[in-house]
Automatic annotation (TrEMBL):
GO CC, alphabetical: cytoplasmic side of plasma membrane; cytosol
InterPro entries recorded: MipZ, P-loop_NTPase, ParA/MinD_ATPase
Protein name: Unannotated protein
Entry keyword set: ATP-binding, Nucleotide-binding
Gene Ontology biological process terms, A to Z: negative regulation of cell division
Cited Pfam families: MipZ
GO terms assigned for molecular function: ATP binding; ATP hydrolysis activity
Amino acid sequence: MAEISLPVIVTAISNSDQESFVAGTLFTQGWSVIHRAVDFDSLVQFCATHQDQISTALLLYSPDLNDFNPVVFEDLVLNFRQIIGFASTISDGAPDDSLHQIPTTATQLATFIRGYVRSPLIRKLTPLMQSQKRSRIIAISSAGSCTGASTVAINLAYELSIKEKKILLIDANLSEANIAIYLDQRNLMDEELWRLTSPFLYIKELTRQRIGEFDSFIEKASAEFDFIILDIGAIHDLSSHFSDKRADSLVITWAGDHADDLWIITRPDRIGKERFKKVTSILNRTSVNSSITLVLNMRSNGRKGQEEEKAFLETATTHKAQHLYVLPVDTRNTDDSAQSRGALAEVNERGILRKALVAIASEMI
């Protein structure tokens, strides 16, 4: 799918404190704030001299900007990619349904703005109402490739289902769907809702063609299941994902905004270490609503494993994660489970990786 240019920001907000909060927050999230209008004339002049830039820009404005002219404004905004109106705290006018209250925290603001730049394919993606929400949603991602994230997602889902929790495992890796292959499930993408694969465990595969149904689907699933586990694939650059409009990025954006937990899994080799450092560095300057869990997978045995774990913790502790997990390498059992198209518990219930995942599942419940 082709790259889509990221929107830049123009602010025209009357209250200086509010404008500083909005511009400063978006700047720290990696957005480019190209103009900060102090009055309506400043906005008009900038638009007249920077027509190419505003065609890709998101305008954030308040209608009580000094010398605001609504007639001129109606023509002006047609040049922008998108606009969002905010009701300023100093405004005495009547409430306007087209205006929004400025969120009070950086995380809420980032989530709000990201919702506006998503593709029209996903129109709502609003946070699920707590009264309707039953599921705990866990998104599992990779800091790079070949980290074993799909193996972790499948087996975590299986262990939770053994504890008689109703589980939905969703393959949301639109680039490289793996779960149907691992579990030998044919035509999974054609399933209207979800497919039962073992007691209490259901699976689903997302596709780009049906991504527009994701919002209604996840809302229905949240009322049905105890846990929803999303395998969302590799995250290379969170800030780009959260501003991008490709289908792959839309799911990652949703996970950062609405999942209860976002797991980021890394591997201990040199490439894994470098990619993990990059992801955590970006994570430190990107606001997400989800609780973060950082996972080192495939830790070696003995002294080598101790060094791998030390290096992981040195990087992981630079970010305030909710949980840090270290999972041992278990090549024989993971190979056997892949060959048999089953879970780790089915090939060796005493395997070291299986035991580690049992402990995590028990902690989650």
